[in-house]
Amino acid sequence: MSSSAPAPVDSPQPPSYPSSGLDRFFKISERGSSVAREVRGGFATFFAMAYIIVLNPIILGSAKDMYGHQLDNGQLVTATALTAAFTTLLMGVIGNVPIALAAGLGVNTVVALQLAPRMSWPDAMGMVVLAGFVVMLLVATGLRERVMNAVPLGLRKGIAIGIGLFIMLIGLVDAGFVSRIPDAAHTTVPLQLGADGHLNGWPVLVFVLGALLTLSLIVRKVPGAILISIVVMTVLAMIINALADIPSWGLTTPEWPGNPVASPDFGLIGQVSLFGGFGKVGILTGVLFVFTVLLSCFFDAMGTIMGVADEAKLVDADGQMPGINKVLLVDGLAVAAGGASSSSATTCFVESTAGVGEGARTGLANVVTGGLFTLSLFLTPLALMVPSQAATPALLAVGFLILSGSITAIDWKDYTIAIPAFLTMVMMPFTYSITNGIGIGFIAFTVLRLAAGRGREVPAAMYAVSAVFAFYYLMPALGLT
């Protein structure tokens, strides 16, 4: 009787990937991507977020510090593009994720409208750098997630919505769609439509058409909707400016530059005073300003990172993102780099999903996006021809997108979180201050949870921060300012 040996069973072999250095470094094939997809994704992300090169200088350049100084627009364009290029490349090489970075909308309004008017520009940017150092310290010590979890989700969403509403109002004001009624009018109404209660002039028409175009493109889910609208409305503004007698467009006149290519102006790089601001506003107010910058970057960045990572399928079965500490560390460094370049805090952009939609899965896409930001350094004259009326419709669109993505996450049936979230989101635009919105929201949350007999549900950190904010608001009454 004969017997035969059983046929050998092949053991599963690990999948083989191309051996090129580029593929191994970025794990391109391992993540199911290709160089072509990464390049397409890098281009898509750049064109989805390139509007920040125009918008950030408009927001920062329209403000004055306590000495009446304004930042140069050309230097701001250079600083914005340079920092976006550097931090995006850094995220690609170190974090190996397709998450691009640039100056954050919201935090730049904090710097322009809250910090700068009470100190010098270098002082204000120094506080941004300090906020970045704090973020990196929290990541290094493993406390970032713990600090984030100390603030309830509903309140975090209220902060995001408040920032969205605030930048919408800034867009309306900067475009001239609404204006402040002078105190001499002896009226209780602080704002009015247009400059005199009516919409007058070609510049305002450009804004209105730009807003309608931007929102229409978003409704139709057109990729790069914001950038397309800015380009189209800038061309229209140039035509109007050439044919009509426009007294003033405000900060920028839409005229074709003699030479669209120019050397970048790095004059703002390194213009930072780390602790000078504390001498102007005091230790407590300075700490709260740094805290406000920190929160403005903190939650938005964390949500963006996890959202883009999930879209790119870079999270594991438990919903965790491998290597997230590297990503968070680069994000903290980006905040500090933004302050060091005077372009305000730099943060992760949700527009990175445009690149992910094109197939980007690795940091190679960021290398492409960062390279394009680097090229834009030499196109400053083109950025300087965009009037605010063509750019600020983007603030309406971004404000809406923030609100629509956050408002359903608030538990409106639990008044102890709904009321603080509501106060946070309305106080930011109504008081023209993100700091006030955060402070009033934190205090309301702590008091209402105590009133409801749920004081044990309030983290110790919330008690401490609420007490600091309460003391901050009481300082004038106590004669300490």
From TrEMBL:
Keyword Nucleotide-binding attached: no
Topology with respect to the bilayer: Multi-pass membrane protein
Predominant place of localization: membrane
TM region(s), chain numbering: 41-60, 81-104, 124-143, 155-179, 199-219, 226-244, 281-299, 364-384, 390-410, 422-448, 460-480
Pfam families the UniProt entry points to: Xan_ur_permease
Transport as UniProt keyword: yes
Region (Disordered): 1-21
Keywords (A to Z) from UniProt: Membrane, Transmembrane, Transmembrane helix, Transport
Cellular compartments annotated: Endomembrane system
Entry-linked InterPro entries: Azg-like, NCS2
Similarity comment: family membership: Belongs to the nucleobase:cation symporter-2 (NCS2) (TC 2.A.40) family. Azg-like subfamily.
Name the record gives this protein: NCS2 family permease
Lineage, highest ranks first: Bacteria, Bacillati, Actinomycetota, Actinomycetes, Kitasatosporales
